[in-house]
Amino acid sequence: MTLKIGVPSKGRLMEQTFHWFGSRGVIMRQTGAEREYAGSVDGITGVELVLLSAGEIPRELATGRIHLGVTGSDLVRDRLVDWADQVAELAPLGFGQADLIIAVPNA
Asked: Model pTM?
């Protein structure tokens, strides 16, 4: 099985997400052209980086198309009805204008 991680696809949120993971030893990179929404995690097999708009990440988590996502807690609450039944917040990240979190779908 491949672990799919959804992260913001552009700008400062993508850069800060890459930096947050990188400072913890998980190096993420965008692959291909700038408009290609794919990435990789250095040195870890079985992990796929999926670059999405921050607003798409809650829906992709809820449907199970990604297994872990970085997005704003406000987006999770605004975009998902009964959000607490669909995803679990794992950790606040401490950057971004909203409260950015790591979340996973509820099993």
From this structure: 0.83
